[in-house]
Amino acid sequence: MSNTVLNNHTTKNVVELCGVYQSINGHDILYDINLEVREGEFLTLLGPSGCGKTTLLRLISGFEEPTRGTIFIDQKNVRGLPPHHRHVNTVFQSYALFPHMNVFNNIAFGLRCQHVSTTEIKTRVADVLKMVKLEKLAERKPDQLSGGQQQRVAIARAAVNRPRVLLLDEPLSSLDYRLRKTMQIELKQLQRRLGITFIFVTHDQEEALSMSDRVVVMQEGVIEQIGTPRQVYEDPSSLPVATFIGEVNIFPGVVTNLLDSKQLAINYLDKVRVTKSNRTFSVGQEVNVIIRPEDVRVWNQHEVSANETEEMFAGTVEEVTYKGTTVDLIVRLSNKQSVAATEFFDEDDERLEYKIGEQVWVSWTSGWEVILPHETR
Predict the structure, then answer these.
(1) DSSP secondary-structure letter at 5?
(2) Three-state secondary structure call for residue 185
(3) Would you say the pTM of this structure is higher than 0.70?
């Protein structure tokens, strides 16, 4: 099938998916996926298991073909093109290194298949070994390497082919916590050095937020939101996004008044509070009020006077969890609703010595809430 050029392209998108659907055995996996991947960016596909992340990656790589829709790479329609003609390379979760080959030969394998000259192979493999800091391990076999070193070999083997896009399918999931954190930093630094577009798949929210230029949040085969890590965390577009990325408190409420284009009054937790939102609501509309635990403040009763508690909520401490840098609290309010709070720990701050059963006040700054139309979780 001949390639067709995508017309009217004014932005530098290295990958574009237009109206992509995928069904397997009559079961819909992906619905109307529209996505633009920019030149040189680190883009992460984030979502729970079974949401379609890996299927989307396989469609871009050419291991599967979409039921409907079009995929463009460098403005060319790649429908029907096999993986080795798409200028993309994939790093799998298992790394898939050849156990009988040393590091150098693992990396050089693809170049030899392309009949690249021996001199150029030596130069390109040496360059990429330096990039991934494995120059001294070129003669080792995969079973003589750590998990992190094997992962770098897999990335080097893909990068040496100079792909336009590097696809990474949960490559850090098999590593232990400490190594995973180290590799997150190294992978982002490597992406900057290589200048290659990375499309990274993970179900780990913290990983996505810390590594990505943009995050694509997926749920049940659809894209819920695309944005920077800060945008998807601080301004989630829907309840599924808010509940999947980080911890949240969710309070049902009703809009009682519209004060201006951005301010509204909401009745929730047995109080009417004024907040702001860029979304449009109507009086009487049911909403969900979202507040992150780290935005919640918990006050001992002796810290506040009676006239300060008008905007606060009375409650009882139910759980206290010390985590080194933070103290996590669960407070049961007088209306039986529970509130999660995260306080940064200071060993000299006696205020953070909370006790289970202690009576406290809970508050947060007006305007820090996210207001979403009502929907069930």
Answers:
(1) B
(2) helix
(3) yes
Our measurement of the distance from residue 155's CA atom to the centroid of its chain's CA atoms, rounded to an integer in Å, reads 20
- Kindly list the distances between the CA atom of residue 257 and the CA atoms of 200, 264, 266, 271, 282, in Å, as whole numbers in the listed order: 44, 6, 7, 13, 8
The residues, ordered by sequence, that sit 6+ positions from 213 with a Cβ below 8 Å of its Cβ are 38, 41, 42, 43, 228
Residue type, 121: I
- Beta bridge mates, 16: 36, 72
Question: 166-221: per-residue pLDDT in tens?
Answer: 999 888 877 778 878 888 888 888 888 888 899 999 999 999 999 999 999 999 99
Q: What are the angstrom distances between the C-alpha of 150 and each of 134, 156, 158, 172, 376?
A: 10, 10, 13, 11, 43
Q: Going edge to edge, which strands form the sheet with 13-24? A: 27-38, 13-24, 68-73, 76-77
Question: How many other CB atoms are there within 10 angstroms of residue 251's CB atom?
Answer: 16
Q: What's the rounded Cα separation, in Å, for the pair 78 and 81?
A: 5
Using the structure block, give the residue that is written with the tokens 């401490």.
317
**Which residues make Cβ contacts (< 8 Å) with residue 65, sequence separation at least 6?**
59, 79, 80
As a whole number of angstroms, the distance between CA 257 and CA 238 comes to 22
Q: Are 344 and 323 in contact (CB under 8 A)?
A: no
Residue 90's SS3 state is strand
Tokens of 285: 């509309």
Instruction: Kindly state the DSSP code that residue 172 receives in the 8-state scheme.
Output: T
